[in-house]
Write a structure and sequence with these properties.
about 200 residues; Tetracycline Repressor, domain 2; 10 helices; DNA-binding
């Protein structure tokens, strides 16, 4: 029997849930239709295409991640804020793998420009980094470093890439202390390039 009462929002959330179960790369309109017990054409009343569906999941996930980070860092600064930010990021990535994978896909400039969620993530990152007395272009450079470090770590962890007996959480905490030390001693660039405050 077909499921009644579908909306663009409920379809997007169902797609995000399915992505967490089967992997974002396996999210298709047909797979979603089967999970909702509807025919493929029924979904096209709410989405334009598979690309549109995947972008909707990406925007949903970006908003959820930004909400978690904002709640975690509220009232904190310095290392406490860095650790809270990083822990919220890691926990979301591990708990919601399909959603997290969606946040990593490239989006068209117009989609990014219209997304409050992605802008909020940049603002949260920069607000946390300003406590380290950083300004542009160092804000963007440091933001990119943190994103690379967090993404690399959680991706390796999720894929079972750490085979040593050392506790993974312990290594994560040490890595955060190392990043904190680096941010407190950020190198000075004698000839900085212009930056426009882009993505972290």
């Amino acid at each position: 029997m077909a499921r009644a009462g579908l909306t663009a929002e409920s379809v997007t959330r169902a797609a995000a849930d399915l992505a967490d179960t089967v992997g974002f790369e396996n999210l298709t309109v047909s797979a979603l239709a089967r999970s909702l017990r509807v025919k493929d054409p029924s979904l096209y009343s709410h989405i334009r295409s598979l690309q549109d569906l995947r972008e909707r999941v990406a925007l949903l996930a970006a908003g959820e991640l930004a909400d978690r980070i904002a709640a975690a860092v509220a009232g904190r600064a310095g290392f406490e804020a860095l650790a809270a930010f990083a822990d919220a990021y890691r926990e979301y990535a591990l708990a919601c793998p399909g959603r997290y994978a969606a946040t990593q896909i490239p989006l068209a400039p117009a989609v990014l420009a219209a997304s409050a969620a992605y802008a909020r993530t940049v603002e949260l990152t920069h607000a946390m980094l300003r406590a380290y007395r950083l300004s542009e272009p160092d804000l963007t450079d440091a933001g990119r470093l943190l994103r690379s470090a967090f993404h690399g770590y959680v991706t390796l962890e999720a894929n079972g890439g750490f085979s040593h007996s050392r506790d993974v959480r312990a290594s994560w905490e040490r890595a955060l202390l190392a990043l904190h030390t680096l941010l407190e001693n950020w190198p000075t660039d004698p000839s900085p390039h212009a930056a426009d405050g882009g993505e972290p």
